[in-house]
Amino acid sequence: MAIDPSVVIWSTPVADRAGKPLLVLLHGLGDHEGSLFQLSPYLPLGHVIASPRGPFASNSGWSWFDVAASRPAPLNEAADALADWIKKSRGHATSVAVLGFSQGGVLALQTLRRHPGIVDAAVVLSAIADETADPGDAELEVVRPPVFWGRGTADDVIPDSQVGATREWLSEHSTLTERIYEDVGHWITDAELGDVHTFLRENSL
User: What is the per-residue pLDDT for 204?
Assistant: First the structure.
């Protein structure tokens, strides 16, 4: 699998991208590259924003990997494809952050795990860590990259049984900023966007 560069939305022309931090937006299951890109006005203005499309058709939208397939193989393939695309597309970016919602958040975290150094920071919204140990985990225990993890108390998509395991993993493998939003379901709120904005400003070179 590979990410199609022809369906990536960019905030900035090629000639103006060098010397700025790159922020990659990863949509959720059954969504598309424009869904998170519409949040660009609420994200730091100094970032170059890129929003790729998942490679697999899913209902009326797209996905990053087959959720019905046995993990972690399809997730790992998606993370490897994203890392390859970042290498080819980052140009002279000063740093790279990934922001993923739901399935995109799972992918953001897995890419950070499998390719330490490719991604400098991650924003994981309404998502969890894969339960399978990854070879990159040992390096992350030392490097501890900054990760923002946000979720709502009324989210009925994220299994409660996996929230504790994700918190434990993030506490041991990242410099964690955790935010919990009361009575919020499986969506992104203005308050969360404000916290994400602050996190990105503080953790982008």
Answer: 84
Domain 5-202, architecture per CATH? 3-Layer(aba) Sandwich (3.40)
d(CA 126, CA 187): 7
- Domain boundary assignment for the chain: 5-202
184: which 2 tokens?
């919020």
Examine the pLDDT at 188 and tell me if it is beyond 90: yes
Phi (first) and psi of residue 187, to 5 degrees: -155, 175
Is the pLDDT at 70 greater than 80? The verdict is no
Model pTM?
0.96
Q: Which two tokens stand for residue 129?
A: 């860590």
pLDDT at 29: 96
Q: 3-state class of 108 per DSSP?
A: helix
Q: Distances in Å between the alpha carbon of 37 and those of 31, 46, 90, 164, 192? A: 12, 15, 18, 30, 16
* Average pLDDT of every residue of the chain: 95
25 φ, ψ (degrees, to nearest 5): -100, 130
